[in-house]
């Protein structure tokens, strides 16, 4: 899975050159997390997780502080967390997570992105059962044996540990995210290249070059939507 996750990150990095879009999405996510609980990450695990993710995308401190201050100010801007499921070309499966202050607008825009790019919306549960919610934590400077040792000492389990090109990627249960990160820090890890709670497909599909190009356009159309935070799929990208 390590190679797969690195490929996903490389693809996203290539597409996400519009950093203002990334920062806007994180600003919204940080605001929602801070408003739903305490605006202090040490007292709000959801906010703490979002800030850990933001670090791996180099989100500026000014963006983070502005979103938290907005939440502290008691702004009556409310967002709903909604998930949409659908199918792309050749039966490929897609999950779309959104934060929206206008449910009707978001539903219409997501449906239009599917319809205009060779896909179609599915009903709730039509796709998600083929994915596993997974914590993914990546860093450099440790070997697989060293990681296994300090996780065992902390009485923590991982689904998988992949070592590749001096980089480690740990796949684990979502509820182990913070504990594993803390164990990594205690073992001397200071920076994380990946810190995600994601949806990983149980099985991947391959598309021919022409179909993959169409699939890319569908994913781009979904990710470009203002209300879309994350898009997951089961296509093995070339």
From TrEMBL:
Signal peptide: none annotated. Residues 79-235 form the TACO1/YebC-like second and third domain. GO terms for biological process: regulation of DNA-templated transcription. One of its GO terms (cellular component) is cytosol. It is found in: Cytoplasm. Residues 3-74 form the TACO1/YebC-like N-terminal domain. Keywords: Cytoplasm, DNA-binding, Transcription, Transcription regulation. It comes from the Bacteria. GO terms for molecular function: DNA binding. HAMAP family: Transcrip_reg_TACO1 (MF_00693), Transcrip_reg_TACO1_YeeN (MF_00918). Belongs to the TACO1 family. YeeN subfamily. This is Probable transcriptional regulatory protein NC661_00895.
